[in-house]
Amino acid sequence: MAEKQFSNDFSTLQQLARDVLDHARQKGASACEVEVSEGFGQSVSVRCGEVETIEYNRDKGVGVSVYIGQRRGHASTSDFSPKALRETVEAALNIARFTAADDCAGLPEPEQLAWETRDLDLYHPWELPVEAAIELAQRAEAAAFEVDERISNSEGATISTQQGQFVAANSLGFMAGYPTSRHYIACSVIAGEQDSMQRDDWYSTDRNAARLEEPERVGQQAARRALARLDAGKISTGSYPVIFEAPLAAGLLGNFVQAVSGSALYRKSTFLLDHLGQQVFPEFFQLSERPHLPGGLASAPFDNDGVLTRDREVVRDGILEGYFLSVYSGRKLGLPSTGNAGGSHNLILKPGEHDLEGLLRLMGRGLLVTELLGHGVNYVTGDYSRGAAGFWVEDGRIVHAVEEITIAGNLKDMFRKLCAVGRDVQVRGSKQTGSLLLDAMTIAA
Q1: What global pTM score does this model have?
Q2: Could you write out the three-class secondary structure of the chain?
Q3: Which tens digits make up the pLDDT trace of 325-363?
């Protein structure tokens, strides 16, 4: 990468934020909040050993929200010049003047803000010349091809490194920010045998490149997954137990988060409306939020509102103990913010005693789901219907691959009838979970 440093000092971002706040005050805003950010990165992809793409990105932006009483306006710009900043503030003010008053709009209460922040070890720059990135991607892909001659083609291997920094500030005197990094290695390959062809992939991501999986392991895992899907067999339509493999189990947790998030709750568009304090999962289900994990992919000392994040138990003994609320959605519901403006922070589902093989034995006969297709989730009713692929299991052992099926159920029932959580934990974004065994779902072949 030609440039390995930020274009602006952190102090420059702070000064830009002050300039925005000062101009908003001068122009009559009763309150203002601003975020100033910049980032840069490099992404290299190879396919069949040849370089396919080399991409560099460098971005910056200023987002401004102003309030005239309880009327809010928002505007943004990618231009850091004084003239552009002034015009952005004034554009936000013009929007606010024509916006209806909202009694829930406004800055957080001062006591909610993160006046003191800690270093969460979120910034690990990767000094990666493009030639080295190409080599790493080639190593991942080559390792996949070496697994088996049936790995006949590739969708490519990618190495990406990204760095960013930001400052968030508001007219209450809050100002904080920090640099972050995120890097990943990914590989996707195609296995072929006679008329059957299957693709699968694997990836590793971390804030610290030293903690990434070796590129060879990423490629080998992608190859093994693709090979396992060859020679898919048929199954009969019916109701069967289902295991969601750990990466997909994170998606089920995401469905739960959506259902108990502020916007869904105050719009009364969720099947978990008014379920605080009620049994939603079995008693063994323990879900914690840990925003301050050092180096965590979803760690943050404060949320997008500047509200201090805190450790908490979201689900204890299967009982829902907390929603996911911003300042605005909390006010709409008459509840305090939970520090989740912008999303959840390191949700950790307590693992059970079984690894994936143990869950297969516990299930006995049923379906292991390793891929989901489509977006068939109705959050108002909880109805769940997705295209799927995976493996049919008999006597606790995988018998053959399965494809082109649909799995269906209702999330409320799926949550309550969860049978076990695996200890094969995977980290996917803000979720950390093992595989999940569900009592039964309808499978249509």
Answers
A1: 0.92
A2: CCCCCCCCCHHHHHHHHHHHHHHHHHCCCCEEEEEEEEEEEEEEEEECCEEEEEEEEEEEEEEEEEEECCEEEEEEECCCCHHHHHHHHHHHHHHHHCCCCCCCCCCCCHHHECCCCCCCCCCCCCCCCHHHHHHHHHHHHHHHHHHCCCEEEEEEEEEEEEEEEEEEEECCCCEEEEEEEEEEEEEEEEEEECCEEEEEEEEEEECCHHHCCCHHHHHHHHHHHHHHCCCCCCCCCEEEEEEECHHHHHHHHHHHHHHCEHHHHHCCCCCCCCCCCCECCCCCCCEEECCCCCCCCCCCCECCCCEECCCEEEEECCEECCCECCHHHHHHHCCCCCCCCCCCCCEEECCCCECHHHHHHHHCCEEEEEEEECCCECCCCCEEEEEEEEEEEECCEEEEEEEEEEEEEEHHHHHHCEEEEECCCEEECCEEECCEEEEEEEEEC
A3: 999 999 999 999 999 999 999 999 999 999 999 999 999
